[in-house]
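Lecture 7 notes: from sequence to structure.

We start with a single chain of 669 residues. Read the sequence below before looking at the structure.
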Amino acid sequence: MQATPCLKILKNLLLQMNGYHFFKTLYSLRLFSFTTFSPAKHLHTHPVHSDSIFNKNQLNDVVLSNQFITSFIRSGDLDSALQLFNNMTVKTTVTWNSILAGFSKKRGKVKHARELFDKIPEPDTISYNTMLACYVHNSDMEKARAFFDIIPNKDNASWNTMISGFARNGEMKKAHELFLMLPNKNVVTWNAMISGYVVCGDINSALELFKMAPLKSVVASTAVITGYMKLGLIDLAERLFKEMSTNNVVSWNAMIAGYVENSRAEDGVKLFKAMVAFGIRPNPSTLSSILLGCSELSALLLGRQVHQLVCKSPLACDTTAGTSLVSMYCKCGSLEDAWKLFLEIPRKDVVAWNAMISGYAQHGAGEKALNSFDEMKKEGIRPDWITFVAVLIACNHAGFVDLGAKYFYSMASDYGVEHKPEHYTCMVDLLGRAGKLEEAVDLIKRMPFKPHVAIFGTLLGACRVHKNTEMAEFAAKNLGNLDPTSATAYVQLANVYASLNQWDNVAKVRRSMKSNNVVKIPGYSWFEANGGVHKFRSGDRAHPELALIHQKLNELEKKMKLAGYVPNLEFALHDVGEEQKEQLLLWHSEKLAIAYGLITLPVGTPIRIFKNLRVCGDCHSAIKYISAIERREIIVRDSIRFHHFKDGSCSCDDYCCVGRSKAILLRHT
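Now the structure, written as tokens:
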């Protein structure tokens, strides 16, 4: 019998859209209801009755029902799939498998899935594999193994599901046992084992299998690249990447992320540009890595270009992409752009809030950070351990000692968040900067775990501010014991001695440093201008426009001294005459960068300077004068935080250089 024109139209609709949207369209037009829908029916074999296009007599084909169920499951609409399933009077094994797949994809549905599986009249291998995948998806590997053992006809999918499950859960010994038992290994099997070993950090086992694999797939090669990058074996990763016959977005991402994680963000940026030039479309993982690279390089211009790329892609409303952009703007010194973008994120999760709170904290906007924390709680977002790191940093940079201590001691009791070493480091810094060095040491001694390198480095930095040699020696000794190769212990201790003119002790520390082959990390500053990055080292002699820069600095020095600036010679860490000390201070890398910024950037444009070490006290004082004399906003990001200089003052209120605590009303409860 010929189909009616109306049914032909519906059939065409089905062909033009996926089953899920077609089904919903019928429902919205009242051409279908779950209560009258029984088995699915052919659209072209029965005439239309006046009461409904679809009715029990007309709809007798189970094939279309299965298609609808599958469409619902793929769209994440398990409830609609179940309603349709329960109203079907005829079900095949395919029907049961389709609905079982819906349960297997949702965590916490193991019990329901097993009850459904046990009702299948004639389960096939797909039924068993789907149920097995449900156990694996819920990380119940003990029950998964028991179920695997009762599968009557195991195929490669059965074995691969178990092997992948063990690998993803870090049980590589069990995965390897099954791997050896499987006679017909396919590419999925090899990929699961190689990736599993890489994730577990066993690169040697991964490489052994990779060499044995009959086919070096993109997945396996990418896993090995990731393993190389984790170990810092960048040359080997590059070689394998070049040898790959086919590269997909995941392999490009592995290289870009690896470069960034190994402090080679510039190479990551170059590869990203090459990837785009090759026509590879970036995904959220790509953008997250490249934005992190922009943050490390403080490459605001490139970050803005990536932002435009995001806006033109399906990721425009993606929370993860939005959060990465917020973090990038914060780390590149554009807090206003970060806040505007944060407001545009439609669904803010804890990671998004953490990015904004951390941004405020790093910029010294303690009040705004804590206000955002309060707002986050009002929105029903539960803070995690990273949130409290940001909150404690905010209190630290703003000098809110009592409030910081209050949050620290209420983390576990009020929020169920256990203390981590990072929280103790923040508290030691908070107490140390406020001059409470003995309390800081007492806290270190009361830590529930062994002190780590960062905590003694933090204490040593506080000793430098307060010129406490006894405590500095204690911190340096412990730091040296934990990491004999660290230059921090030597440099910071020498700085404490130098600030007190104890030059014999300075020389002693430097000799010890030399005998132990410890190399100091050179300080340098940089900024973006005219599409390039300009780098400067203290006492730089290589810049092509050095004469012009020195001329500008000499002009600034005269104006600053007329305005009341007095060079702080304690930050000239060499035993030389006062005049030479002043010259050394004048040529610090951040001053050179600022002078060049004043020369090259248009009048009124904020100057954003970035430094790999902490800005010294003399430079901090000088930049305040420069901002007032030149009527220019100067933003400096050092290794600890941001400083916003404007009209002769700094956003840190000099707290970074003169540790002290501030009183604040405890309204943040």
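The beta strands are 524-529, 532-537, 607-611, 634-637, 642-646, 649-650. Keep this in mind for problem set 3.
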